[in-house]
Structures are given as C-alpha cells and as structure tokens.
C-alpha cells in the first residue's frame, strides 16, 4: 500500500494535472469513488439517509460531487456547511452543481440532521487542516462520531503528515482515502480514528507516482513472502549465513538468550554467540545450537574492550554481526562497539545498548564501510538525536527518514507503526499489538533481523520482513494467550507457524 505525505499528494495532483488528468477531473473521480463506496454501504444496510458534513476547502468539494451523483440515483442526501460557502474555485464549482439537494448551514439544523442520518460523511477538513477545532466544531464532531461516520480522505482534525490529532478529531468507522493512503493515517494516534481504510483510485497516472521523492509504502505479507531465501534440497549450513552476536551481560543475560533464540528460529546456518563467560553454562543448557565465545568482563559483569581482537577475528568469518542487546553501557562497551563499527567487515545490526554506546560519537556511523541497521525504540532515537521522546514521536517519519538519509543507514524506528527508513524511501509496519510492550520484545526483533541479514537478505528487505513477522508473531500470541499475559519469548514460539505459512505460500505460487 502506497503512503504519501500531504506535500507528496499535492505534487501528485500537480503531476497529474500536467499529464492530462486535471484537478477538476481528480475531484470528480474522488466524488465518484466516494459515491460508489456509499452506495455499497447503503445496499448492505438496505437503505439510508446520508448527511455530508462539508468544510470550505476541497475536502468538501469531494462531498458535493458524491452528493450530486447519489442524489441523481434517488438516494436521500443532504449537505451541512460547517465553514460557510466554499473558498476554493474547484469546491465552489461543485457546490454550485448541487441543484435542489438540501443545504443546511445553521448549527441547530445540522445537529438535528446528524441525529437522523444513517451515515454521516466527514468532508469537513482533509489534508489542508491546521490549527485546532473551535469548541462548537468539536461538539458537532463528537455528535457525528457517535453515528456511523465515514471519513473523506482523512478524519477531520487529523494530521496527514504526522499522525497527530487535535482534541475533538472526528472518529470514523471507515475512511476512504484518495490516490494513496496518507502517511499520518498509519501512525498513532490518528490510526485509531480512521477505522477501516480504503484507498480509492482517482486516476492519477502511474508515471506521477514514479516521480515522487522519498516513496513510502506499508509492509504487506505479499511483499515479504518473496524475501524468504530459497532452501535447496542439497543445501548445507554454510549457505544460510554465519551470525556473530555480541550481546548480554551478567545483569542482562536474557537479552542475549532472546535475541539468539529468535535468530535461530529465523533460519541462520551458524551462530557464534559472544557473551560473558559466567552465563554460558546456563545459556548452553537452554540453547545448545550456537558456538559460544566467552567474553571477559569487568567486576560488574559487562564485556571488556579487550575482547575486541577475538571478536574481530570471529567477525571475519561472519556474514552479519548483531551487537548491543543487554550489552550494557560502560566506557568499555562503548570502546568495544566503536571498534566493531570502525573495523566491521560484514553488515552490522546495532540494537539497544549498542545504540546507547554511540550517542556521544554519532558521526562514526557515517564512516562505517558496511551496511548498518539501527533499531532504536523512541527513547533510544531521542538519545541519538539529543532531543525529547515527544519530539521523536511527534514526527516519526521526518526523524527516521532524515537520520537514514544523513547517515546512509537503514533505521528501524520501533513502536506501534514501526518505520523502516532508508536513504531512498521508507516502509511502515501495521502488525503487532500492545501485548508486545514488554521488556524483551526488542531483543527478539533484533535477533530475527540479524538472522535474516546474515542469510544474505538485503538490509531493507530483512528489516521489513523482520518487523512484519515480529508483529504478526505478537498478533498470533495475543490471540491465544491474551495481550495481557503473552511474553516476548512467546513471540519466538510463534515463528515456526509463520514460516510454515510462508513456505506453503511459496510452494503454491
Ligand atoms: N486538489 C485536488 O485536485 C484534489 C483534492 N482532493 C481533496 O482536497 C482535500 C484537500 O483540500 P484543501 O487543500 O482545500 O484542504 P481541506 O482539507 O479541504 O481544508 C482546507 C480548508 O479548511 C480550512 N481550515 C483548515 N484548518 C481549519 C481549522 N482548524 N478551522 C477552520 N478552518 C480550517 C482552510 O482554511 P485556511 O487554510 O484558508 O485558513 C481551508 O479553507 C483533500 O484532503 C481531498 O479530500 C481530492 O478531491 C483529490 C483531488
Ligand atoms: N503497542 C505496540 N504495537 C505494536 N508493536 C509494539 C507495541 N509495543 C511494542 N511493540 C514492539 O515491541 C518491540 C519493543 O522493543 P523495545 O522497546 O526495544 O523493547 P526491549 O528493548 O525491552 O526489548 C518493538 O519492536 C516495538 O515495535
Ligand atoms: K475529512
């Protein structure tokens, strides 16, 4: 699913206009698509009165077209003007074609109409919304939201660029978005205001989409199914990658266990697991598959930089390195992480404390000569950028995309609606649930990602595949264990079922 910012949408409309599909035709198509959708809804409900709530911009214009088309087919429609007569030439010309459709402009009339409508269509504000809602608007929106409300392009009050909402934003059961889904609609909190999202084709030429800078898309199962490495019947372990994990400390051995277990379940051929010597016996009892590399530690159980030479030798034999989960943030681990990055000979996945260790010397990232993937959660991202978590969360795509472009890395900004940003474009995940908001879920993701990269899947593809499957594993776990009780380790238990499905899908394709 394509995702666009409001600026990109405006550029698409402009390119479309230059390529023979005018602005007026786009609006006519948008209204047509909306009317087709509404007709389907009416048929399912066996009848229904439709009230279009319209603002004075082009979002209202789409509604005038739909109202005219539906009315010509005998559907009882009315229009409520919330911001007066349309301001744009386009919307005004559509408004003038309403004919004898009832137009309500007093608040009292509109309130009454909302009360008796079967469907309320929200065409008050689209991508041109800014500022806040006036109290009387918020009150009307609350009333409309209590009905079966259908969003036009985006719920009014939502920010199509960031996913922010203002108090009183319209709550829609379904939203019909034109040309492409707006990025903000797949981020929180706006996502929860959209209901089911449908994208309507309004005739923007394919060539226009191809000219958009920094394209974005939602991650789908279909997309990631093709990334699975093929397994030939005569294959051997050396063909499925060699992963070096530099993880864990005496205080956080679990992070090493979870990332390693997840990596093993994602199919890597060989794993070397560098962890503090003291935790190896317990780990090996649980997971005998990896080759264990004992690390020397300080008196608190955190790895020393003196392990560097041994780790570099092991890295030379590896196809990917995962560093950071549970490693701890000390002067010694900082020196170790820095050295691994500076001398890396294969792709590196930098997670958790691996990220924390470089926040003071972020420019070294630009000098890394191998593909680098960072997997920060919002607080780690804020540390990287030396800003607040709120600043990260208020504009996730801008923060992730700018970082990826500036540093030439793949950046996985975690949290509901995880973003995989690369220097060329970005992907957004929609799987997962709040049952995953538990310490350890990130370690599982890091292990999965590292395993896929080690197997030779290009970093961006691997990141999309890992975040999609990680969230899907969370959704499966929640189904039979509940969001409340499920654990990060349960995600690992779901992986075999998910890979089985992907393999079956590949065999049937
Ligand atoms: N262009 C095309 O060909 C196509 C466009 N399409 C449709 O156009 C939509 C974008 O239309 P748009 O740019 O006119 O903006 P829209 O969202 O209607 O709102 C702007 C109006 O609201 C006002 N306003 C804003 N905030 C406000 C507030 N807090 N309180 C009060 N007023 C406020 C704002 O006022 P102003 O900025 O002037 O102060 C302005 O008058 C898009 O979402 C899609 O539905 C489709 O048909 C496809 C083809
Ligand atoms: N509400 C949610 N919806 C979807 N995914 C979530 C949600 N909460 C957490 N996750 C996912 O779980 C993981 C948590 O990672 P992180 O915060 O690094 O955990 P930890 O470091 O404790 O292992 C991320 O991949 C994140 O996207
Ligand atoms: K709207």
From TrEMBL:
Protein keywords: ATP-binding, Isomerase, Kinase, Lyase, Metal-binding, Multifunctional enzyme, NAD, NADP, Nucleotide-binding, Potassium, Transferase
GO MF annotation terms: ADP-dependent NAD(P)H-hydrate dehydratase activity; ATP binding; kinase activity; metal ion binding; NAD(P)HX epimerase activity
GO biological process per UniProt: metabolite repair; nicotinamide nucleotide metabolic process
Boundaries of every YjeF C-terminal domain copy: 220-502
InterPro entries: Carbohydrate_kinase_pred_CS, CARKD, Nnr, Ribokinase-like, YjeF_N_dom, YjeF_N_dom_sf
Superkingdom as given in the UniProt entry: Bacteria
Catalytic reaction(s) noted: (6S)-NADPHX + ADP = AMP + phosphate + NADPH + H(+); (6R)-NADPHX = (6S)-NADPHX; (6R)-NADHX = (6S)-NADHX; (6S)-NADHX + ADP = AMP + phosphate + NADH + H(+)
The enzyme's E.C. designation: 4.2.1.136, 5.1.99.6
Domain YjeF N-terminal: 9-210
Record-listed AMP binding positions: 414-418, 442
Cofactor(s) demanded: K(+); Mg(2+)
Cofactor, free-text remark: Binds 1 potassium ion per subunit.
Binding residues for K(+): 59, 122, 156
Residues involved in (6S)-NADPHX binding: 58-62, 126-132, 153, 255, 326, 377, 443
Function: Catalyzes the epimerization of the S- and R-forms of NAD(P)HX, a damaged form of NAD(P)H that is a result of enzymatic or heat-dependent hydration. This is a prerequisite for the S-specific NAD(P)H-hydrate dehydratase to allow the repair of both epimers of NAD(P)HX.
Subunit structure: Homotetramer.
Family recorded in the similarity comment: Belongs to the NnrE/AIBP family.
Name the UniProt record assigns to this protein: Bifunctional NAD(P)H-hydrate repair enzyme
Source organism: Ruminococcus champanellensis (strain DSM 18848 / JCM 17042 / KCTC 15320 / 18P13)
